[in-house]
Amino acid sequence: MLVSNFHNNCQSKKVVVDFTASWCGPCRFIAPILADIAKKTPHVIFLKVDVDELKAVAEELAVEAMPTFLFLKDGELKDRLWRKSWLSKQCQHSSSSKTESLRTRSWVLGRKNFWQP
Predict the structure, then answer these.
(1) How far apart (Å, rounded) are the C-alpha atoms in residues 4 and 6?
(2) Among the options 15, 16, 17, 27, which is catalytic?
(3) CA distances in angstroms from 64 to 11, 39, 81, listed in the order given
(4) pTM, entire model
(5) Among 24, 58, 61, 108, which one carries the catalytic annotation?
């Protein structure tokens, strides 16, 4: 019910939903990167969902790991990325925070067709 209402209200819009938690280290790491991307893509709506505060939404969308990102376009789910897919790429090499930040930005922005206005 919550999700169907959300989808109906997001018709003809691009939306990134960031499922996060206050205790999640990777969520805190990626937060400033997403904030920067949001500033540079004003045609995309960014939403944060705290899974501890909105358990019903997380359960309805089968969110089991944080962070999880949903990419919606015109009310339809186009892509889903979650912690395991992100960390597997992040942990391939030990590197500086700057390099990790660039890899994370690349990982999120890798949905090329999604970001275009």
Answers:
(1) 5
(2) 27
(3) 26, 28, 11
(4) 0.72
(5) 24
